[in-house]
Structure formats: structure tokens, C-alpha cells
Amino acid sequence: MPSTPFHRYRIAxxxxxxxxxxxxxxxxxxxxFPAGLQWQQINTDTCRIIFPKALASQAxxxxxxxxxxxxxxxxxxxxxxxxIDVVLNNQxxxxxxxxxxxxxxxxxxxxxxxxxxxxxATPWLDLLAVHEYRHVAQLSTARRGLTKLLYYLFGQETWxxxxxxxLPDWYTEGDAxxxxxxxTRQGRGRIPSFLKGYQALAAEHSLYSxxxxxxxxxxxxxxxxxxxGYLMIKHGLENYGPNLWTEVLHDAASYKxxxxxxxxxxxxxTGLTTRGFYDQMIxxxxxxxxxxxxxxxxxxxxxxxxxxxDYLHPQPDREDGLIYYRRSFEQTGSFVRFHRGRETKLIxxxxxxxxxxxxxxxxxxxxxxxxHPRWRERDYHNIxxxxxxxxxxxxxxxxGRYFSPALSSTGEQIAAVYFDESGQSSIRVLHAExxxxxxxxxxxxxxxxxxxxxxDDQAVISAVRDEVGNMGLIRMDLNTAVYDTVLxxxxxxxxxxxxxxxxxxxxxxxxxxxxxxxxxLQTGRIQQVMSDAPGAYQPSLEGDTLFYVGFTxxxxxxxxxxxxxxxxxxxxxxxxxxxxxxxxxxxxxxxxEYPIEKYPALQRAINFHTWGFDFDDPEVIFRILxxxxxxxxxxxxxxxxxxxxxxxxxxxxxxxxxxxxxxSFGVSGLKRTAVIQEEVRNWRETNFFGQISxxxxxxxxxxxxxxxxxxxxxxxxxxxxxxxxxxxxxAGISFVQQRIKARKNxxxxxxxxxxxxxxxxxxxxxxxxxxxxxxxxxxxIGVNHNLILQADHKRDQADADYEFTSGLSQRGYGxxxxxxxxxxxxxYHLPLIYPDWGFAGLVYLYRIRGDLFFDYSxxxxxxxxxxFYSAGVELIFDVNLVNSTSTTVGLRISRRLNKGLxxxxxxVFLPIYRFD
Length: 916
Description:
By secondary structure, this protein is of the alpha+beta class. 17% of the residues lie in helices and 44% in strands. It has an 18-stranded antiparallel sheet that branches. Strands 4-5-3-2-1-30 form a six-stranded mixed sheet, covered by helices on one side. A four-stranded antiparallel sheet has the order 6-29-28-27.
């Protein structure tokens, strides 16, 4: 039967839900690795480590660690971990790692995370290997029962989806954090700042329900699933025994009981549903939270934000003011000066993977992230400088890998940490205007963090991690590159040192909380000057006034305190206490030298992993899918069913992403019916195509930009009422630019979109078509409001023998067939409410937003011109389905305004926008 609007969008909603849940997976960007990388491999029965030639020693370490974990650890899960391909990525500066299904693989990015309070000082690849191999073991164990059956029926995507639906993300990540804490000398479970969010909420009596803690919020700060999961796993092991989570994993992945299998299994073993278990855990956590006597400090009221706002890295200027970095859920990050009770925005900050910056001599320096235009896995972290007096900004470096730049006292030089592609770090000193550079190297295996200049600008002090994960402070002479130890190395965590004259302040872990220490650089004496739960971070010093930030549920806040300088402090030299766990099984890891071979990328290009259904409105697709581990070859074949046109389309497509331009080839077939020159025609089409395209990332600063030129050629064979062959060329370009947006912003405040496509038959067939789509995103009245304007045009050649596509769609009318169409639309989007409410674990509602729209189309068909008008309202729901799939669903009421065509349509739809 024909699809009515409601019927169509009901199908769309159900299809999107099923495919989103059962076919969920994650992988790197297609064709993201640069061509020319010399890939090598270590291939064993446990893992295949695939790596660029420069990472041979790191690959040996990862292979040995995986083997050790496979043989001696993860036995508690009572499952056999499957062999996995692991790609070592030295192209990215974004510290991360993942395990993915469809295809089954892992990736470890080799650039260490710079923040010592985020993941600690454990050797980076050791930490990643322990954490990610736990995911290998979890997901391997989860392929049992119904999950295993779905895997055999449909392949790896449904293995991923079924595991994701059965196992909460807090369980998988919390369990992995627990293991990294158990097997390393630090791990996030021993880093107090890891749980500072829950500490702050407990102190303020603001702890949330399980539903909100599980799904998060757009309007409120909610600690993420890593933190929730660690507390849940810890509570279970301490109170219900070491076998609890293994048994729950087995039952849930097998779908025993089908509905709510995880909660059902947990209740069988503890008497508590997941919600009840969380309530028990959070009550106990609240009772046991560290409660320090409230210290004496002054909280500087630097702003009047009513939403979550961070005020970070306060640094005093010469006029009793403060320079700091500010970001919020409603405003993107910027540098701000606070003076005499007033905030003055200095300059916005572009995308970055760190919040640190340096202020000296009326200059600010920081880093910003950029990507290689073509190779998405290759990105850069470059140094930016802003001169407040000249009000000028410049980019000091290009294609760099810099972190935490620090200005000298005169503002003429910058010291920064540099990570090269072999994983080694060094300190580099650059002239602040010319960029002329010199390199200061330490010991191999050291990781430098947060360099600071001494008062005479002749040396740089840095917090350093050594090759086993101890930390200390070293001072390196700029002239001789000789270094001496300022604070001895030990199993401690040090963050954000700041030098003022002969004094250095820094944060360090002490007795379960991050405290601030003062170090006299002349005498070497050290004293604790601030301890503040849930932590005192990012200290700076001006005279005897200490500035630092503390955390609250509404964000980081700037605080100050008067301290005593040049005192003897404690009776003897004493730094922060060492963390209690002084050894790790990995310290005694016996290294085996595995043979290294060239990785046969071509031979392993075909890797069928999934066979089953997919969904792309308005089509339901059955296909088999192949992706290689480097994700630069994709092959799929199957049948698409379009429920708008009720047609079946068999197809096969091949995409190649290892070249600078990407190549795509394909074949498809379908039956078509159309009214052409007042006659009904039926025919069958077989289409062959080839396309070349380049997806270019041109982002910089506060703007994201993507440019995609493409060109292709197709051969179409017609049979039936038409019996002829013709070829056509297609060429076009798409471009989108949008200012980065904050968490609560619906769309960018400044965005432009353009897409142009031209098709033309190149033989005797008379056919040509031009399509142009444009859009502007503008700010609205409220901070989170947007006005979106769109203008589109489609033009077919007059008296064409063939029409490439039908007309453009208009709300209220659907597709309006025409040879020429001009369409204008205006949408005003605004948030309405943020319910943060869930029902039975099936749906969780983050936000309800509204859209008022007006559409106008002018069409021309057979020399007859017509105008169409419609207006209406949309309610758009940002939701999470079954705690697993975040999506957006809309309800639309469209009113047709043309005389003789008046009417109102109601639709359920899946919003697709031209801006994020």
C-alpha cells in the first residue's frame, strides 16, 4: 500500500532504533591514515600488532603486555579472549585508545595524555594496553547465548549491538578502570581528581538518580560513565564477592530472561535491581566521602553564570587583575581578564585538547588543534600567541605537536613540550614572534609536562614522568642542556607547576586529595600551603597571595588565600606522600623479542564481518559488509528497499581510501515508472558508476570547515518502454563552515552551507540537471536560539528525455515533481525544557525543543508555474533509547496554505540538519 506520512515516519523511527541499537560499532575515519606509511606487524596467536616502522620497540612492549594479560590476567571473566588486530597510531596528538567490533580491532594512539591528574603517570602504552585488553576480554566473553546467535546470523555489527544493549557502558568502562587500577601503580582509582565530581555532589547534597547518572544531562554536570562504573564495580566487589560481575556478565550477554538481563541477574545475586544497587552505592559513597575541615579561602566572584561554567588557570597580571580561561555549557572557551569586579573577554580559543595557557608581559600563549586537510588520522597541536597591547594574534607553529607553552618573563621566548612520532618528548624553546627553535632533550622515556621559566629566564623547570611512572621536578639549563633535580622522583603525581620569583607552587596528591605545595627554589624547602576537598588545582602566586581553582557542581571556581613565604616550613625536606601502591606486575614483565614482518595490507584488504540489515531513511538495506583493519577499503553488496517509492534496488559498491582522492565504484538496478510527456512509462535501469572525491578538513581557530569536491561518470542501461544506453557525468562541490558551539547550543551561531551538483548526459540522450542547496545559521534572540535560512534550486534541461531525480521536497506537500524548483525556508529553533527524565530504562528525555517554520516553493512544469506555501511547528525530542542509543525524534504539524490544497498533516520524522 502507499506510505502515508505517518506510516512512513513510523517505519523510519522503528528502523532507526533497531539499526542504531543492533548495528552499533565504532571505528576510525575511513581513509584516515596517510599514504606511504610503512606498516609492519608482529603476528602471534594472541594479537596482531600493526605499526609504522618507527614504533618497533613500542610494538614489542604492547605485544608482550597483551600476552602477559592473556595468560595471567582476565581469567576472572572465565572466557577466552579472541585474537585481535591492534593498530598503533602515531599520527594523532589526541591521546586515546579503543576496541571496536565490525571489524574486530583495536587502536592505541601513542601520544601520551599531558594532564598528570587525568590518567596518572603510568607509562602510556602500558596503561592503554591494560585498559583496552580488558575490553577485548569483556567483549569476547560477551559473545555467548543470544549474542552469539545474533553474531552467527548477522555478523559482527549485531555482536557489537547486542553486547552494547545487554551491558551498560558504565560496566565495561568501570571494570576496565578497576583493572588498570589493580595492575598498575596508579590507575584512575587512585587519583583523587577522578572522583572529584562525585565528591562535590556529595558535599553539596546534590547526588542524582540512577537514571540521570546513567544517561547524563545537557543542562547539568553529571560525572561520566567511567566514574560511575568504577564506583559501581568497586561497591560490588567489596560487598558481594569477587564473582559477582563475572556472573552478571555471563547472564546479561546470554540474555537470560530477555528483558533487562543485566538488572535481572544483578537482582538474583544481590537482591537489588540496578537502580537499587546504585542507590545503595551512592549512599555509602556519600557517607565515606572525604570531609576536610573547610579551609580559609576567598572565592573570587568573577562571573554571574547561571549554568555550568569553568574558570580555569588563574594567573595574576601587573594591575591586580586576573587572566583566566572561561568556558561553559552555553559559551565556547575564551580568555578573560577580571579587574575591579568586571570581566572583559580578550579573545576566543579554538579547538584544543588541553585547557592550559601562559600569561606574561601582556601576552598569552596556548595551543590549538588542527587536522591534515586530507588524512583525518593525522592532526597537529600548534602554538598560538596573543599580544594584549597590540590586540593581535598569530599562529607561531605549523604542523607541530606542542603542548603547554609557557612564556618567559619578557614574553619574548616560549618553552613548550613536544612529542614526536616515535613517542619521545622534549622541551623546545621558540622565539615568540619568529618561531626560531632550539631543542632541549632529557632522558629517553621521560615525558615532560608543564614547563615553567625561572625568574632569570636562563632555565626551565618541568614536571617529569620517568620510564616507570615516577614523577619529579627537574630544572634544565638553556645554555648547557644540563639538568638537575628540584624534587626527587617517586611514585607521586605532580601537576601545573607555577614559578614566581624564587618560589614554585604546584598541585600534588596527598592523603587522598590534591593539595598545593610551595617550594623555595633557593633553599629547597617545601611546605603544604593549601588542602581543599575535593581538590586544589592549577595554582599561581603573586607575592604572598595564592590563587587556585576548586571544583563545584557548577564548575571550577577561582579561590585565593594569603600564605607565608620564606619560612622553614616542615622540619625537614618533605614532599607529597607517595601513592600507597609501589609495585605493578608490569614492572617485572619479561620481554620476548617477537619477529617483525612487513604488514601485507593488500592481502588483508577484504575482511567480511557483517551480513544483515541497515537503515538509511527512506531505505531499508540488506547487505554484506567488508572493512579492512586500516579502514581504507570498504566493500558492500545487497538490496535496498525504498518505502517511499516501493522499489527494490540490488547494488554493489567498492570504496578505496588509501589514495589522496578517494575512489568509489558501484553497480545498481531498479524498476522505474514515470509520466513523461503525458504517457506512463515503465522501464528497468541498470546503473554503473565511478566517482572520485576528496573530503578536505580546513578547520582552524574557532571555525570548522569541510570542503568536498567530487566528480563521476555513470553508464545507465534502460530496457522496457525505453531501450537505450546512455552515459552521464556528475560534478559538484560541497562546503560547510560553522563556528564551534557549546554544549547547550542547538546549532552554531555562525554557519554557512553550500552544495552544488551538476549532471549531464554525454551521448544522444537529452538530459541535464543542476541542483544547488544553501543554508545560513544565525543566532536567535536567546543564547541557545537559532535562525536557519535555506535556499535551494533544481533545474532540469527543457524537453529532457530523462529526469535524473524528481523535484525537491516541501513540508506539507512532500516531493513536488517539476523541471524547475526554487525553494526557500526559514526555521526558528529554541530549547523548551530539559526534563532529564527516564521511563523504565526504555527512553530517557534530555531536551525538548521547538521549531517554527515557513516553506515556499516556486515550480515550473510543462511551462506552467506554481507557488506552494506551508508553515508549521515541530517538537523535537533529544532522547536516549534503552540507555544505549542517543537519537533525535520529531513531531511535525504542517499546514498547507494554498487555496484549494488547504490541509494539515501530522508526521513523525527523524531530523536531519545541514549543521551539527
